[in-house]
Amino acid sequence: MRTVTVIIIVLSIAAVILFGFIILRYTIFKPPSTAESEQTDITIGEESEPVAKEEVPQEEQDLEKISTIEVYLDGDRNNGIFLGEAAYGMTSKEAFTFYGENFSDTGFFLAKEMEDCTFEPGSTHYIYIYTLIPEYGWDYVRRKVVVHGETDFDESIKLSIEDPSPTIKEADKSSIKVSGWSVDLDYLDSTGIDKMEIYLNGPRSFGKSINEVNYGTERPDVANAFANANYANSGYSFHFDGSKLEDGSENTLYFYSYSTSGTYLLDTVNFKMEGEKEESNAIISVAEANLDNHSIEISGWAINKNKTLEGKHRSLDVEYSTKKIVFTSNRNGNKDIFSMNLDSSELTQLTDYPGNDNYPAVSPDGKKIAYTSDINGIWQLMVMNWDGTDKTQLTYNSFKSGYPTWSFDGIFIFFEVYQDGDWEIYRINSDGSNIKRLTFNQGISDWHPCCHPFQKRVIYESGNIGNEDLYSMDYYGKNKEIISSINARKRVPAISIDGKIIVFAIYEGDNSFIYTMDSNGENLINISGPLTKCCHPCISPDNAYIAFDNANDGQEDLYITNLDGSNLTSLTNDPSIDKDPVFMYQVP
């Protein structure tokens, strides 16, 4: 009994001690209250209000920036093969060069494996780059891509394409005529042709198949031409519906003629839909496009053109890997385009068309050459790679179109047109789309355009014969200004890469001299020395040299001089016509 009593007493003392400790813990040792602890205390029996979370503002989308880039192969968004959405916002050296650091992150890139596709060597494809600016909608460009390698066509097959015409009239869009003929000359007892296939905007297995070709129509003219009655039924003719093709769009038909031996021949024809393509709000440039070994890689840059008031002044310290002069010469009979080094070495013929090719113009990156070609008796614009490969006709006009010049970013080509008895200036996209007339001076010639190196302006020659002067205007033919008040007959202008110097020819009676002046029309300097029949001057991209041509004793030669007129040197001395020099500089 005593033991139990002792245990009860001990437990009672322990309970008193524990209770006292708890009282001390919540009185003497209670932590000080804070605003935060008071806000988070919850009282049972009272309704508590939820604590509002601080909202993090989301970055608003810039509706005038490019948000999406989609890429299609061998057709537009309605007919092409969707390759995917390109990554956008990458560094672009080209955009930086043309527009400055604020646009250096406008590059795009797409790489795609296509195991189920085979790109035939030497085949030609078209890629369509679509950009979405939410404020304006979709824009696109179309670019040709040639697969590396040589084609394997049967040269005994002859294929003639007579239709479609270069421009499809509005009234003919729903029923575009296609016609021509084909024979295999290895066969004498028949035409030797088993069948024909035609595809739109891409080769077989890629482009859109056109309805079945009706081969075997009567062509007695073909039988007569080859003196073989068995070729009488060698024609083809049908119509297809092109009403869904966009106004002003460029298109290509691929013609396959298959021999009964199993071989084939491929030929293509380009045609344009009548009308104007809507003015693009995006500047889209394809820098590289490679189709090879079941894979595709495409890169370039794209920006909202409305954000580019002008480009970037190119540095004079750029290191160029290639420095050449491109010019016109008739030393081999016809006028053709040639290139050579600045010391006249490595002369290379770039064109060999039976007609005349002249007035070359080099793109800002030095990789393309636009020029004038006398096609079927009418000047047309052509473009080719810097080495003379991949020649493409840009215009199919019924009037003379020539003397091209590139915009500083390579997007546009400006040129002169002889229409209604005088010359006028036009603009076309460098892919041959969207031609626009910019000047409308009836009875007065506006011609010999040259683009400013970083501003969206064109300088040109205007006036009646004997009273020409130099003017400038913007890319839309607006805001025209006379450049100089000097009283002289001033012609064929060009401008330095920094925009500070204009070089041109002054005509005095039967003589002409090369002069420079400041861009404000002051500080006139003769740099052609004793030469008296000078024309077509240009300034090198590093501002080091001026080249021009000079006629003397029935021949015409090229000369080069320093920018101040010192060290005048003859580049050619051939008993022929060498003229229209332009510099071709390339960055590695």
What does this molecule look like?
The protein is mainly beta and 588 residues long. It has three domains: 68-149 and 279-307, no CATH class; 157-273, Immunoglobulins (Immunoglobulin-like, Sandwich); 322-586, Neuraminidase. The chain contains four helices and 41 strands. A five-stranded mixed β-sheet has the order 8-15-14-10-11, with no helix packed on it. The radius of gyration is 35 Å and the shape is globular. The model is unreliable at 1-11 and 13-53 (pLDDT under 50).
- Shape category: globular
Q: How much of the sequence is in beta strands?
A: over 45%
CATH topology of the largest domain: Neuraminidase
Task: Give the low-confidence spans.
Answer: 1-11, 13-53
C-alpha termini separation? 109 Å
Strand order of the largest sheet: 8-15-14-10-11
CATH class of the largest domain, please? Answer: Mainly Beta
Mean pLDDT: 89
Summed up, the domain count is: 3
Architecture of the largest domain, CATH level 2? 6 Propeller
Brief synopsis:
The protein is mainly β and 588 residues long. The chain has three domains: 68-149 and 279-307, no CATH class; 157-273, Immunoglobulins (Immunoglobulin-like); 322-586, Neuraminidase, CATH 2.120.10. Helix content is 7%, strand content 46%.
